[in-house]
Design brief:
GO molecular function: ATP binding; microtubule binding; microtubule motor activity
Protein name: Kinesin motor domain-containing protein
Distance between the termini: 138 Å
Mean pLDDT: 70
Organism: Microctonus aethiopoides
InterPro entries: Kinesin-like_fam, Kinesin_motor_dom, Kinesin_motor_dom_sf, P-loop_NTPase
Bound molecules: adenosine-5'-triphosphate
Radius of gyration: 63 Å
Number of strands: 25
Shape: elongated
Strand content: 5-15%
Pfam families: Kinesin
Length: 903
């Protein structure tokens, strides 16, 4: 029976669906057919899944292209398409006027949107369709699930093209089979596969075997296996080639006749089935699965196909079976309890695929043009409805029961395998044992090597520790020795001072001097004895250090011979840094001690100088009063005052420093010798400080040896201090270190020696020194800092020397005249005034009364002048001198902070 369009519409009408729906009890009440299972299921991994629905649009055929049919399908993307999309608006003219509404003579576009699992447009190849549809179901099949793929659509829509394809473009059935064999091959180690195929067609409601020439076959329902085709022979195959040749053979046998719609129209539904028996090699589990590839005959309209006679009958049967299929799909989609599988042989065969234990893919083929408008519309509605169908997949696992003999066989096989593995293990172990002795560790070091390295590290640490302790002792002893040297130096200086002071005076002073001298000598003796002890200790420690150094050298050689130097580099580095730290710490401590000692000495000398200057002034004044001051004494006094100004204590930049007899060497510890004690002498300071060594300066002592009369006033004292600070000398830092040792005692000797006998030549010496520097520029070291210059304060402006040489490198002083600042001049003037005052006072009192009035007036004049001068002097100091502030501070002996040395 050929069904017309009305019949088909009726079959798929929504009303009918609703009607079925009313009878049904809903999705939840849907019970999958148990008849679908191919075996007794002992293990069932059941899951519910929807039918996968795919739409493929074929390209327009020749006829459609020639007659220029409208395209009624628009593929939006790989999941969405629009049926009968709206065309571009062409204005509708009525009586020559464009109308706003649509052309009422034309049918309105449906513009139906459909969503599917996949939509293939007309340009997609069979390979793409295979990739997107059936490739993935092979995995499910081999896992134990039945799978089914069927192509549905109107005649000429491309079903056969999709399923079977052509020789040069195989369809998805070929490709799926090829993939199946590919997968079987990859799993063959774990599983055994047995394959069988059947190929049948339903033609005019008769089931025929396409691989064997038989008569119509009957369908039977089996409680265990479901619907089976009686007497359908399953052909066992071993290879993909066999399978494909059988497929080709069946295709050749299939009924095909040309119709108006399709020159190669398939007039039957073809079902190609592959049965696969999967046996797990490990547990013997057996699965039986079935893959069905179904190429349906196309629904057709008699008017379209123009079939008559036999073709008409074929068409009627095709439509009948398709109508039954449609009904089943509707009911399944709506969850209707009754599914009319029995209405046709096709639906009976597809029972498993549609509503049973199966993973199903439906490919809906459609034409693109308006020529097949109704067919395409029906197919899409059909496919859309099929989306709702849910199948219930479960693994088709057959009994695991095995015969006892099977188990015995299995156990035997496994025993063999175990023995084989044991042998392999033994072989591998025997290979690894000898390697164990060599280097089993992951880092390539044997345990023995590691132990040796550890031992070596321990030895190295031990010996370095010894070296550190000995270094510590050497440095401590060295520091003690140098401190003792300083003390001896100061004691010798004190002794010289005493000698100078007491050479020619009365017995009282002599007695004092005797006790002082013996005290100094005692101290000197004590210090020298201490030095001897230190020397002895040092010798002992030094010898030990040499021994340790020898051991270190031996150990180094051993380490080198064992190529461990690199591995022990961290130990070396660590010990080196420890030693460096130790040496630095000792150097710092020693420098601090020396500084502290010098500070004490400087304070002591400062007190002496101040006391002496007061005493001298008293005596000078007194002698002036008695008129016993000779010109020479007067000059000496002036020179002394000048010397107190501080100009003379200049450390010249080109003077030698750092010699063994320099105090600089007492400030620093000898570090370098410690690095190579074997080739160096032990670091004990040289014995330049013997009793007879002329180390101490005697300028102050000699000056102090001379007595002057005069009472020192507080003002005068402060003025003297001001004079001292008024002289500003800047030297480089290295010299500063040297000066700090004993500036007052040593520097005058090396720079400008000032003795009583040659005080008059002091400034000449200075001048000569300056000249020497100017003339002999080559003697100025390149290292000499820029700051190396001597500058007399702006007030005196007598001498300016720049170490580098430049515009300031000129002498502005007048060398023949002693350089005295205004304040010094003021002091001398005052002394003169005092002296004249004093003489006039004496003369007026004892000798000459005439001169008395003159002298008296002079005294008054000189008093007022002196006062004015003094106040002026102070004002000048207050306002101009940069050291003024420090003078006003209560601690007058404060050592200046900057690089400027005020003496
Ligand atoms: N995607 C396609 N690409 C190219 N040609 C196609 C495509 N689909 C179909 N055709 C061609 O269209 C024609 C009809 O296709 P086919 O025979 O596969 O239709 P059919 O649906 O199987 O029809 P019937 O139901 O009558 O058997 C064939 O010549 C085929 O080569």
């Amino acid at each position: 029976m050929v069904m017309n369009k009305r019949d088909l519409d009726k079959a798929f009408s929504p009303n009918k669906i609703k009607r079925f729906g009313k009878h049904g009890s809903g999705v939840n009440q849907f019970k999958p057919s148990t008849s679908g299972s191919t075996s007794k299921n002992l293990h069932s991994d059941e899951s519910s899944t929807s039918i996968k629905v795919i739409v493929r649009v074929r390209p327009p055929n020749e006829r459609e292209q020639q007659d220029n049919y409208r395209t009624v399908v628009k593929v939006v993307d790989d999941k969405m398409m629009i049926f009968d999309p709206k065309e571009e608006e062409n204005p509708f003219f009525y009586h020559g006027v464009a109308q706003k509404g649509r052309d009422l003579l034309k049918k309105q576009n449906k513009e139906l949107q459909f969503m599917f699992d996949h939509v293939f447009n007309m340009h997609c190849s069979n390979d793409e369709v295979f990739e997107g549809t059936t490739k993935e179901i092979i995995f499910d099949l081999l896992e134990g699930y039945n799978c089914s793929v069927f192509a549905y659509g109107a005649t000429g829509a491309g079903k056969t093209h999709t399923m079977l394809g052509k020789e040069n473009d195989p369809g998805i059935t070929y490709r799926t089979m090829a993939e199946l064999f590919c997968q079987i091959e990859s799993q063959s180690e774990l599983r055994d596969f047995n394959l069988g195929v059947t190929y049948l067609e339903i033609y005019n409601e008769n089931v025929q075997d396409l691989l064997h020439k038989t008569g119509p076959l009957a369908l039977r329902e089996d409680g265990r296996a479901g619907v089976v085709v009686a007497n359908l022979k399953i052909i066992t195959i071993k290879s993909a080639e066999e399978l494909l040749s059988l497929l080709a053979q069946g295709n050749r046998n299939r009924t095909q006749h040309p119709t108006d719609s399709n020159a190669e129209s398939s007039r039957s539904h073809a079902v190609f089935q592959v049965y696969v028996n999967i046996t797990n090699k490990l547990d013997g589990q057996v699965k039986q699965v079935k893959l069905s590839m179904i190429d349906l005959a196309g629904s057709e309209r008699a008017s379209a196909t123009g079939c008559k006679g036999a073709r008409f009958k074929e068409g009627a049967n095709i439509n009948k079976s398709l109508l039954a299929l449609g009904n089943c799909i509707n009911n399944l989609a709506e969850g209707v309890k009754h599914i009319p599988y029995r209405d046709s042989k096709l639906t009976r065969l597809l029972k498993d695929s549609l509503g049973g234990n199966c993973r199903t893919v439906m490919i809906a083929n459609i034409g693109p043009s308006s020529l097949s408008y109704e067919d395409t519309y029906n197919t899409l509605r059909y496919a859309n409805r099929a989306k709702k169908i849910k199948t219930h997949m479960k693994k088709n696992i057959i009994s695991c029961e095995m015969h006892v003999t099977g188990y015995i066989k299995l156990v035997e096989e496994q025993k063999k395998e175990i023995n084989l593995l044991k042998q392999k293990l033994l072989t591998m172990e025997s290979r690894t044992i000898p390697r164990n002795n060599i280097s089993p560790d992951s880092d390539g070091q044997s345990e023995e090597n590691k132990k040796e390295l550890r031992d070596m590290r321990d030895r190295l640490s031990e010996i370095f520790e010894k070296r550190r302790v000995l270094n510590d002792k050497v440095l401590s002893l060295q520091s003690t020795d140098k401190i003792l040297c300083c003390r001896i130096q100061y004691k010798i200086a004190a002794d010289k001072r005493l000698q100078n002071l007491t050479t020619s005076f009365n017995s009282l002073v002599e007695n004092q001097n005797a006790s002082g001298k013996s005290r100094v000598n005692k101290s000197l003796l004590h210090f020298r004895r201490q030095r001897d002890v230190v020397k002895l200790q040092m010798q002992q420690v030094w010898n030990e250090l040499c021994d340790v150094e020898g051991d270190i050298t031996t150990l180094n050689v051993e380490i080198k011979s064992k190529s461990m130097t690199e591995k022990l580099s961290d130990t070396y580095a660590s010990h080196k840094s420890t030693l460096d730290n130790l040496r630095l710490q000792h150097q710092y401590d020693h420098a601090r001690k020396v500084c502290s000692l010098q500070q004490c000495e400087m304070e002591s000398l400062d007190t002496i100088a101040r006391t002496m200057s007061g005493t001298l002034q008293t005596y000078y004044t007194m002698m002036c009063g008695y008129g016993t001051v000779t010109d020479k004494m007067d000059m000496e006094f002036r020179q002394l005052v000048k010397s107190l100004e501080g100009v003379r204590n200049i450390k010249w930049a080109d003077a030698d420093i750092g010699t063994s007899q320099d105090s600089y060497s007492l400030t620093c510890l000898s570090i370098d010798e410690l690095n190579d004690p074997i080739n160096n002498e032990m670091p004990i300071h040289s014995s330049f400080l013997d009793e007879d060594s002329p180390i101490t300066p005697s300028a102050q002592n000699n000056i102090a040896n001379k007595t002057f009369d005069g009472t020192p006033s507080v003002d005068r004292e402060s003025e003297v201090k001001a004079e001292i600070h008024n002289s500003t000398v800047t030297i480089d830092e290295s010299e500063l270190i040297s000066d700090n040792v004993d500036n007052k005692m040593i520097e005058p000797i090396r720079t400008l020696e000032i003795n009583v006998n040659d005080l008059n030549n002091t400034f000449k010496l200075m001048e000569n020194k300056a000249k020497k520097r100017l003339n002999d520029k080559t003697t100025i070291s390149g290292k000499t800092p820029v700051k190396q210059f001597k500058k007399i304060s702006p007030k005196t402006k007598t001498l300016t020397i720049n170490g580098i040489g430049g515009k300031e490198n000129k002498i502005t002083s007048k060398p023949a005249i002693p350089m005295m600042s205004a304040k010094s001049v003021a002091i001398l003037n005052k002394l003169k005034t005092d002296r004249s005052k004093f003489s006039s006072h004496i003369s007026s009192a004892s000798f000459d009364s005439t001169g008395s009035s003159n002298n008296s007036s002079n005294i008054n004049n000189s008093d007022s002048t002196l006062k004015a001068m003094k106040s002026k002097e102070r004002r000048g100091l207050m306002t101009t001198h940069p050291y003024q502030k420090s003078i006003t501070k209560p601690k007058i002996n404060t050592v200046p902070q900057s690089s400027r040395v005020p003496w």
